[in-house]
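[[Per-residue structure]]
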Amino acid sequence: MKAEVAVNSLQVGMRVPDLTIYSEELATVMKGATRYSTMDMPPPLLVVEMVSPNQENRDYRYKRSEYAARGIAEYSIVDPISQKVTILEWVEGFYDEQVFPEEMAIVSAIFPNIQLNFTSMKKGD
């Protein structure tokens, strides 16, 4: 299902992340929906965005503040251009940032038992 994340921004009213992971509570609320928007629902647990060429500001700055305003617990930025993954974890009203270069294991605070690295993501493993 196409997941639109409602945001409060001067530039846009909705974002469509490359990957969205929902809580069980949110999945229950969405059951049977043909379209999903999160403005009046709990925020997703995790959104993942792939950085597009010439769109670094959008992915690193604008979306970061928009997702923070929604209280999304974790925002991951996969940057194939710089070959790194940035994980932003919502802690006490702000995002704490951790950068994982290509060779480093990527660990999510929400899913600590799942470890990836940039190389395995590129190969589709």
Notes: The first strand starts at residue 3 and ends at 6.
